[in-house]
Amino acid sequence: MTIFYFTATGNSLAMAKKIGGDLVSIPQVVDSDKQLYKDDVIGIIFPIYALGMPKIVKRFLNKFKLEADYLFAIGTLGNMAGAAMPNLQKHAQKNGYSFDYTNQIRMLDNYLNMFEIGDQLDKLPSKKVDEHM
After folding, report:
1. Is the pLDDT of residue 38 over 80?
2. How large is the average pLDDT for residues 71-79?
3. What is the β-pairing status of strands 41-47 and 70-77?
4. Which of 130, 123, 131, 132 is nearest to 104 (CA)?
5. Residue 90 CB contacts under 8 Å (≥ 6 apart), including other chains
6. Residue 13 to residues 6, 45, 75, 91: CA-CA distances in angstroms?
7. Antiparallel, parallel or unpaired: β 22-25 and 41-47
8. Residue-wise over 2-11: b if at least 16 C-beta within 10 A, else e?
9. Better pLDDT: 107 or 112
10. Which domains occur in the chain, in start order?
11. Rg (the chain; Cα; Å)
12. Which member of 26, 31, 67, 77 has the lowest number of beta carbons within 10 Å of its beta carbon?
């Protein structure tokens, strides 16, 4: 299993580590010349920003072909998912593949301009992150 991940604050990396497999950082490969990634299972894990996918994830999806018996994607978020996962599926289909499973997992909301981290830590048990993973 190969998991491609993009993380800024560590939520998506923590999720990728918990799931396991060969972890590959999207920023480290997005500029590579490789065009195709193959494995029995491929996952993509990323934070949901402003109700959508980060630009680097879109760039990754548009650049690389992913071939797997099972393809999944998980978006981590603190508050609202918006249309991130349907848009992810559209990008994949535009490039000739589709995800077998997509989901979003609520984690710590760490957009510091808007949320007090102490309040978010208090809310963390109610998000049941491990249970949803």
Report:
1. yes
2. 87
3. parallel
4. 132
5. none
6. 7, 8, 11, 22
7. unpaired
8. bbbbbbeeeb
9. 107
10. 2-132 (3.40.50.360)
11. 15
12. 31
